[in-house]
Amino acid sequence: MKLISYKTEDQEHLGVFVKGHIYNLNSCDKLIPDNMNEFLYGGEELMDRAKKVVLDIKSGKQEAKEEVFFEVLAPVPHPSSCRDGYAFRQHVTSARRNRRVEMIPEFDQYPIFYFTNHNAIQGAGDIECMPDHFEKLDFELEAAIVIGKKGRNIPAAEADSYIAGYMVMNDLSARTLQMEEMLLNLGPAKGKDFSTVIGPWLVTPDELEEFKTSPKAGHVGNAYDLAMKCWVNGVEVSSGSMADMDWTFAEIIERCSYGADILPGDVIGSGTVGTGCFLELNGTGLLNDPNYKPQWLQPGDIVEMEITGLGRLTNTILKSDTDWSILKLKKNRE
What we know:
Layout: E1 2-8, E2 11-18, E3 21-24, H1 25-28, H2 36-41, H3 43-59, E4 71-72, E5 82-85, H4 89-98, E6 113-116, E7 121-122, E8 125-129, E9 137-138, E10 141-147, H5 156-159, E11 163-171, E12 173-174, H6 175-182, E13 196-203, E14 212-213, E15 223-224, E16 227-232, E17 235-241, H7 249-256, E18 267-269, H8 278-288, E19 302-307, E20 311-319
Parallel strand pairs: 5-18, 7-13, 8-20
Antiparallel strand pairs: 1-2, 1-4, 1-13, 2-3, 5-6, 9-12, 10-11, 10-18, 11-13, 14-15, 16-17, 16-19, 19-20
């Protein structure tokens, strides 16, 4: 099942994407709330009702009204929180090698994550960025999950049952801001908090059964062989697979939930797949060729991300009409 949030005029709605069309779930079953947050809090009972609606639409039993004039939103427009992990060893190894530092052994000991701005979640469409963001503006090709039920201290062996669904995620990053603030061993903050893109819909785990594979040796939880790709202005720049995740989402949930509640509507990203950002690609390029020309996102660029089974997420990068700069506010600037 593909769950989608959308807006008609000023009202947000919850729908399902079936055979190329969007149908409003509440109009098909009045017991299903007309927004994603309330729906997720309804747990398995509402999820089962929604799946029955989808089956009825496919079989012709349900005469559902197709939505025509709408704006697609992030699948979870108002997440209760947003965390981002660091699950792909290839990305971490490459990024550290490009900085000429050794691989950090702690990566293989425990999964880590950081909290980002859950109020800066966006879906497909235009992404407006400030001038300072364009100082090395980067994409990050990731997968993400949404939590479907409340839990705490969840063992990895049980954690997959807490996942309501999967999405494509683009963790946009302003690298100059990020690198400056992290010199103080805190963050990332302003380098990350302006936009995190998820979409185009939330895909329930049952749709991914055919793609299941074994997790990496010594790891626990569901793993899926889903191809991950990114294009910038029609040129493919990144390619990988969710099967390359070293830490599973189940293991990340285990750590997130230690001594803390996870809640329906929490979004958790995988971290960047290998080759999944310009920071890594530029570093590798310069390491191999001193004349390599680094690339960063520019105003007007079109970023397309696709993960097998999860859909394609497309955004156009725009520049705000302002000269306001926090980089210029630094004290004692040289």
